[in-house]
Amino acid sequence: MHKYIFLFAFLLIQTGCGSPDGNTWLIRTSTDSISVSEVGNIWKQLDQSARMRFLAKDNPVGDFITALGGKTMITAEIDNENYLHSQYIQSMKNCWIINSAFIAYSDTLSSYVLSSITDTDLSHYGELLGSIVWYSSPVTGSAGPARLPDLPWNLAFALDSIAPGSHVEVDGVMYTLDSIEISSQEMVDATLADTSTFNTFARSSLAESRSIRNLDSLKREVMETFQMDSNAVAAYCLQRESVDSSTELASWNGGSISAGEFHGIADFASMGHPGNPQSFSWVSHNLQNQARLSFVADLYAAEFPQGYTSFTPGAEAFALDQASELLFQVNVADAVQFSDSLVYQAYLQMDSVPQLPETRVFESVMVPGGILEEAIALMSDENSLVEIGYPGYTEFLDPGNEFLSRPVVQHELPYEIDLALFAMEESSHEWSRPVEVEEDLFVFFRLVEIIPPQAASFEQVEATIRRNLRIHLEEQRTMDWMCELEAIHEFQVNHGILSDLPTDPAGWSEL
């Protein structure tokens, strides 16, 4: 598939090329030429894991040259299509820099805060150790649970001086202590007795809480000037491609985000977790988050300009990576189309139809520990348990049923339920003894049906066939596309000199 060309090419993205030394060319296109020594330098600059991926192949040198040639043509295509300078790729590149700067600022802040912790801080931490509080105020709203010594000292000691339900004023703000939990004095004394462990824990906890407070303060600062165009965001969620890319979705003191820029921001945010650009709340959250990240990144750039500049090579490599994927999407993935009939034909042509394992259907009821004995007393009556008023095992319920499960295979079920259910005889429909699946939560279950192993129907394997068919067609299209690029770019490899070169490409740089 495209990984053959792209994965290896991505490994080379950050390596660049050495200065021309006039040596014999090894790779050549209509617009570029790479000499033997340059190829050797690129090989030497690969990290060990990247080099081993080639060495694991039957023809490492040939695969390396193919990947390097592919990278050369792909880079040329990216330049021809102006992908790197497109708003989408630039937006994703900017996201990469902003996130890197935010992490660097957070790490720098944590180091500074850690170094500023005093013996007095440790003493105060020990005095308040073991107290967990829930509190509220017009500024914080409802907050907690929070370790009391992790709060600012004036607030922590103020809350420590009042009873739950009471109020206290700190720095002009009225706070209410909603609830407090205090560990046993024996546990606190045991923790304090190990001075080294306590000091390490206290320093780490204080550094984390103070860093978070400082970052939260910066986030609140940018949110004071943050404005979002709700109508524009609603239109973006409805159909983002129809919204003019220059439409401003949000702005704050120091920055703004247009619809075109948010395309890249949304896709960047979705790389770690699935995103939903059709959701108003998701878009709103990510607009605010991007404003906060940008604000902190600008602070880092102002305070540590050299550190900020150091992100440039990584950002450029990331942008080239994304541009390459976009190029593949347009020229390969989007070009592969196939009909439902072709999927069904692939099913009919299978050498053997997959066999599905035995599955079982069961009925279940989940009850809390508080009524466990009452529920056990009802086990002898087939209907009483389902009438007790508690739901079935939610994770396995058949859609539309309150107590009946979908067909399940043995390995899906939690330990003890799987063994008991799959040991039951088909004639057995009695309730099994309850199994605790969570703390103080028990499941009663009984066998309803045994579905023996059987050949999979088309519907049961359609998704797998469709996925495999796409992979196969994309592999074919990738090879065809690379042949097209070779013709367009007049790609050549100087095969005639390979036999005269050292077997290790690292030695080529010295020729």
What does this structure look like?
By secondary structure, the chain is α+β, with helices and mostly antiparallel strands. The protein has four domains: 1-81 and 335-352 and 463-511, no CATH class; 89-104 and 224-324, no CATH class; 108-216, no CATH class; 355-455, Chitinase A, domain 3 (Roll). It is built from 18 helices and 15 strands. The strands form five sheets. A four-stranded antiparallel beta sheet has the order 4-3-6-5. β1 (25-28) and β2 (33-35) form a beta hairpin. It is extended and about 85 Å long. 26% of the residues are buried.
Considering the chains and any ligands shown, give keywords for the structure.
single chain; 511 residues; alpha+beta; four-stranded antiparallel β-sheet; three-stranded antiparallel β-sheet; 18 helices; 15% strand; extended; disordered N terminus
Q: How many strands, which pairing sense, and closed or not: the largest β-sheet?
A: 4 strands, antiparallel
> How confident is the prediction overall: mean pLDDT?
88
Distance between the termini: 35 Å
Strand content: 15-25%
Number of domains: 4
Envelope shape: extended
Low-confidence parts lasting 5 or more residues at pLDDT below 50? 1-22
- Judged by helices, strands and strand pairing, the structural class is alpha+beta
Order of strands across the main sheet: 4-3-6-5
Number of strands: 15
Total of helices: 18
Rg, nearest Å: 32 Å
Helix content: 40-55%
